[in-house]
Design a protein that fits this description.
Blueprint lengths: L4 H15 L4 E5 L6 E6 L2 E11 L2 E7 L12
């Protein structure tokens, strides 16, 4: 099920408020309309998937963190 423009606007507002960062954005994916990319200053962070089941819609934010991206242990 594709995202509507209203959903995208609401998700952006939610993420910006939740993470206290106005530089978050969402980009629709042409080949996978049931998901969208989450970006921070244009850099890919993760994917939001839309799921509708029994009349209820939920969104799953998936962010992969690679071990070599983590800072060194203290």
């Amino acid at each position: 099920m594709e995202f509507t423009q209203d959903e995208i606007a609401r998700l952006i507002r939610y993420l910006r408020e939740k993470f206290k960062n106005e530089d978050l954005s969402i980009k629709l994916r042409e080949k996978a309309p049931e998901s969208a990319e989450v970006l921070l200053n244009g850099e890919f962070l993760g994917v939001i998937y839309k799921d509708t089941d029994e009349g209820e819609t939920s969104y799953d934010f998936n962010m992969a963190i690679l071990d070599f991206d983590l800072p060194a242990a203290a």
